[in-house]
Amino acid sequence: MRPFVENFPFFSIFLAILAAIVTATIRSGRAAYWVTIGVCAVSAALNACVLEYTYLGDLSFTYTMGRFLAPYGNAINCGPLQAMLTTSFSLVMAASLAGGRRDLFQDVLPEKQRLYFVMVDMLQASLLALTYTNDVFTGYVFIEISTIAACALVMAKDNGPNLIATIRYLFMSLVGSGLFLIGLTVLNSITGYLLMPSLAEAVEGLRLSGSYPIPLTVAVGLIVAGLGVKSAMFPFHLWLPDAHGGATTASSAILSGLVLKGYIVLLLVMILRVFSMELMVELGVTDVILAFGLLGMILGSLAAMRENHIKRMLAYSSVAQVGYIFMGVGLGSIEGLIASCFHILVHACCKPLLFLCAGRLSAVSGHHKSLKNLRGSAYRDIGAGLGFTVGALSMIGIPLFGGFVSKLYFASAAVPTGMTAMILLTIALSTVLNALYYVPALLAIWVKPPAEDEALVLADVHPGDLAADRAFTAAAAILIVGIFVLGIFYHPITDLIEAGVRLI
Predict the structure, then answer these.
(1) Phi first, then psi: what are they for 25, rounded to 5°?
(2) How far are the Cα atoms of 220, 441, 456 from residue 371, in angstroms, in the given order?
(3) Phi and psi torsions of 70, nearest 5°
(4) In sequence order, which residues have a C-beta less than 8 Å from that of residue 21 and are 6 or more positions away?
(5) Which pLDDT score, from 0 to 100, does residue 459 have?
(6) Which of 205, 203, 255, 202 is nearest to 230 (CA)?
(7) Which segments of 231-367 does DSSP mark as H helices, in order?
(8) Which residue in 64, 270, 294, 299 has the most C-beta neighbors within 10 A?
(9) What's the pLDDT at 160?
(10) CA 315, CA 321: separation in Å to the nearest integer?
């Protein structure tokens, strides 16, 4: 008899979808908020149980929903890596909502608040499904669900600039989804399968026999390109700054920390369970991914240096960090994939923390977003100032922070390659560039302005914005702890990732 815990991944997906239905019937936005927070907490607990079961048992399993085989049913696959990612994503989702609660209820009209949380619930279901799916077409379905939900989060503030940003995001997302779907169509036409295990056998047979080399290359290329566009890989990132610049704080935290990662995780799963790294290297796809990853690391940072708007700066920083993840994939080795998976966790903690703290620092500065108007804001909210400092130092790559370990693993993974010097130089240059825009931001928030400038800023601040926000404090504390855990106790985490990659 199969252990009951093997039902938990499906339960967590079903619970998120059910929460969306329930939330749609609730009139109170605050009640809908607590339903969504509760679902995220329960999902984290369920997936943590799955993590313990799979890691301690050194196993992975496939759960067939309703015990109906394809094409009448569907299946999900779970191992330590998927369970760890879904547990982390659920916790970060809850922290993002809690930390951005005050801005959320201020920015979103009361009559639209429950609909906002409906979309968050569907986004949570999509993240879980993209990580656990054993069927590539199901992955496509949840990609589209995630797109619709993310668009709703971007335009939640309901103003002109946000509407324009949403249209741009929707256009680029549809391009990515279209490329992915065309790739799946080509892949299905030459293999006849959609389930990942059957696809893997068929693709391996084509690789060994040399059959359909051009269609196979086209299929893999289109799928990678589609997911790259969805995850804001350079040069398909132009929608990201506008989307983040006007979105509410919670939306920015969720989009940067989680939504982008969902598409990348699906790509990693498909590489490990369908294509194999050997095929990716033989087709030259890893070389293309590596090139775009390295360019994203540098050009994303250069764009961030030119920004004075703090949220747009953080958005361009996300482009650079996504570049790191794709660089790891492009190395064409298991070590590179492990480094990328670890960086997904680091970025999932750091970037929501930075966006949440930026939102608080802006709120205590009259809701200004430019760095020059945020001078001394850390003293008006010490917790937000410390949180932003921790997130920034981690992104720069200071020891004891998660970002340092990420870069160390990327550098180690690059050593066996034939481009060691170029990759190490790019990592070093990117680190310097990271410091060149994060350090001025830190100086801006920690250097007190002249008394007359401070008085002008405080005149624009609503007294309620200066009040303590316990939900924000708790959320920031959780994310800060996560960053330090990743930076200090990284060996057990990387061992878990390695076991998950092996079992996937």
Answers:
(1) -95, -5
(2) 43, 7, 15
(3) -60, 145
(4) none
(5) 57
(6) 255
(7) 239-246, 249-254, 260-270, 277-282, 285-305, 310-330, 334-363
(8) 294
(9) 63
(10) 10
Strand partners, 75: 64
With CA atoms as reference, report the closest residue to 313 among 129, 163, 439, 164. 439
Structure pTM?
A: 0.92
Question: What is the pLDDT, as a whole number, of residue 453?
Answer: 61
Residue pointed to by tokens 């109906």: 68
Question: Exposure of 343 by Cβ count < 10 A (0-12 exposed, 13-18 middle, 19+ buried)?
Answer: buried
pLDDT in tens, 95-125: 999 988 888 888 888 888 888 899 999 999 9
Q: To the nearest 10°, the Cα dihedral for 317, 323, 324, 329?
A: 160
Which element (helix H / strand E) includes 474?
A: helix 470-488
Handedness of CA 378, 381, 386, 388 (dihedral sign): negative
Low-confidence ranges of the chain (pLDDT < 70): 1-2, 66-73, 158-162, 245, 451-467
Helix axes 110-132, 8-24, angle to 10 degrees: 160
d(CA 126, CA 262): 8
